[in-house]
Write a structure and sequence with these properties.
Structural class of chain B: mainly alpha
Number of strands of chain B: 0
Distance between the termini of chain B: 63 Å
Shape of chain A: elongated
Number of helices of chain B: 5
Oligomer: heterodimer
Structural class of chain A: alpha/beta
Radius of gyration of chain A: 24 Å
Number of strands of chain A: 12
Helix content of chain B: 55-70%
Strand content of chain B: under 5%
Number of domains of chain A: 3
Shape of chain B: elongated
Strand order of the largest sheet of chain A: 4-3-6-1-2-5
Largest sheet of chain A: 6 strands, antiparallel
Order of helices and strands of chain A: HHHHHHHHEEEEEHEEHEHEEHEHE
């Protein structure tokens, strides 16, 4: 319950921070008489868009407290939606303030104030295009991450110069200070993320103990901390992995697949499926004995945070990894609460950890439901996709008191979310972790 | 929390922000209207006082008005070029544009117009 109040409190703080520059501008008498309603509306949208943009980074800037409080999935989606809102506000601001004079969107010529605004506008358009069309544009995840960060820096820097140069409402020192504060709210977490956390990763390397082929184009990396005690985590959380040095190598968010009840050597495991990028090019070649860098844990997708009479875990493809961590942890803790695991994939070769999961049905109160789209001859499990009928057949009478955890590809998650809503499962009991969002 | 719930929260929050922006614009406009009324009242000719001379619309005032109203977004060369491209009554075109663009007080519009189209008499800006 305390976490619910914390989540509400921090959300209210976020809303207050977004509104602060505009709230202050409302208190100021207009700087020029005779300005139209539409022009003031454009100014208002601009004064909302800037704090929205600068606080975007706080949502996804690897701040552990925020990540655990709301969950990575919630933050990623909110970040995306608020980015779209900020883009619409900036478009509205530009249309209303320029009043159709499109020449003012030329970032090369004109007064510096307009050039800065134009740069911020076009960089924002670029960041939206590359975020929504990363795959059609064939941008690798690593390159996209670098591009996204650089574009974001450009947007907030040019945006700051533009707002301060306007000298209308922001001619007031207090409002200037608030706008600079917004910029710092972006810059400081960014420096913490890009410098402090990277240095910390370098000081705390991990060693690859094993690189197991799990079948289904998936591998499991077993890691052991070198000269430090690793980290505690909740089952279902994820960490950022870098197979090279953090400052120059890509980092990838990967769910921890092993038990949160750490063994004496404090090893942890990550199961990674070949998705045609780093996961397929680099991971298979990571040799035992090599060093790797880990930053974690992050996320709030964990049964530790959600008390319930029982749990329903719904996994698609490599989405099985956080579920495996939850199940192993429950087994190691002697947790007797019932669990139903729905595990869907295309064919039987794609299923990983199958023997271990089958074994766990005897070691704990686990019901395993395997669902294949293209089952082999003689398959005795479920066929097709996870739908409301299938769920209804396996769920117990008191299913509304269970907690639901889903992890898988976006299309499956959207479908299952609809099925759970159709079954009247309370939305507050449905927890999701999507991968491949961008 | 489900995806749909996040979407609803995001949409609700965005709508709230739009409403706040509208309230800001309305509030600023109301302030503007009262301020303009006060300025007009303050500048109304006092009975028996001499009428304002044309000095208030001389180029130096136009320069000041341009700096105040336009220079943040426009350069003088750009405006001169625009004026020279206008066919017909350049003065009327410029004054019409100024009125539509900013709603600045009339004397300032006239001063800016005189700056770029010296032939403006000051009477032609109001279309009949």
């Amino acid at each position: 319950m305390a976490s619910v109040f914390s989540a509400i409190f921090w959300f209210v703080c976020y809303v207050a921070a977004i509104l602060l520059p505009l709230r202050f501008a409302i208190l100021i008498a207009p700087v020029e008489p005779g300005r139209s309603f539409l022009l003031e509306l454009g100014v208002g949208l601009g004064l909302l868009a800037y704090p929205l943009l600068t606080l975007e980074f706080l949502l996804v800037g690897r701040l552990r407290g925020i990540s655990q409080l709301y969950g990575n999935d919630v933050l990623m989606f909110f970040h995306k939606y608020m980015g779209v809102a900020a883009l619409l506000f900036v478009i509205g601001h530009t249309a209303l303030v320029t009043q159709g004079h499109l020449g003012q969107l030329n970032p090369i010529s004109g007064p510096a104030m307009l050039r800065d605004g134009a740069w911020a506008f076009w960089l924002l358009v670029a960041i939206a295009i590359t975020a929504f069309f990363r795959k059609p544009l064939r941008l690798s995840y690593g390159l996209w991450m670098v591009l996204h960060s650089l574009l974001a820096l450009g947007i907030v820097a040019f945006g700051l110069r533009h707002i301060l140069a306007v000298q209308a409402y922001t001619s007031r020192p207090m409002l200037r200070a608030l706008v600079v504060g917004c910029f710092l709210a972006y810059l400081l977490p960014m420096l913490r993320y890009r410098v402090w956390q990277y240095l910390r990763m370098l000081r705390r390397p991990w060693q690859v103990v094993a690189n197991r082929d799990e079948g289904g184009r998936s591998r499991t990396l077993v890691l052991e901390p070198i000269g430090h005690r690793g980290f505690e985590f909740h089952p279902g959380q994820f960490a950022w992995l870098s197979t090279g040095r953090p400052f120059v190598s890509e980092q990838h968010p990967i769910s921890i697949a092993s038990s949160a009840e750490l063994p004496g050597d404090r090893r942890i495991e990550f199961s990674i499926r070949d998705l045609g990028d780093w996961s397929g090019r680099t991971v298979p070649g990571v040799a035992p004995g090599s060093q790797i860098y880990v930053n974690g844990p992050f996320g709030g997708f964990s049964l530790d945070r959600e008390p319930g009479q029982g749990f329903v875990l719904i996994a698609g493809g490599i989405g099985i990894t956080p579920m495996r961590s939850m199940l192993l942890t429950m087994r190691d803790r002697g947790d007797v609460r019932p669990v139903i695991l729905f595990y869907a994939d295309r064919d039987s070769e794609a299923l990983i950890h199958r023997e271990e999961l089958t074994r766990m049905t005897r070691e704990m109160s686990l019901t395993l439901v395997l669902v294949l789209e293209a089952p082999p001859d003689g398959w005795t499990g479920e066929r097709g996709r996870i739908d409301a009928d299938l769920l209804r057949r396996y769920l117990p009478v008191q299913f509304k008191r269970y907690q639901y955890f889903m992890c898988g590809p976006p299309a499956m998650m959207d479908a299952v979310e609809g099925h759970l809503a159709a079954l009247h499962v309370p939305q507050t009991r449905v927890h999701a972790e999507r991968f491949n969002i961008v | 929390m489900s995806h749909r719930l996040i979407l609803r929260v995001a949409i609700g929050f965005t709508v709230l922000l739009v409403l706040v922006a509208l309230a800001f614009a309305w509030s600023a406009s109301v302030h503007d209207a009262s301020l303009t009324a006060r300025l007009n009242a303050a500048s109304a000719p006092v009975s028996g006082a001499p009428p304002p001379t044309d000095e208030s619309a001389t180029p130096p005032l136009g320069v000041g008005s341009f700096e105040k109203r336009c220079a943040r977004c426009h350069e003088t060369d750009d405006v001169s070029a625009w004026v020279s491209k206008q066919s017909g009554n350049r003065c009327a075109a410029l004054e019409g544009f100024l009125q539509k663009h900013r709603k600045a007080p009339e004397p300032e519009n006239r001063a800016i117009a005189l700056l770029f189209a010296p032939g403006c008499s000051g009477d032609s800006q109001t279309p009949e």
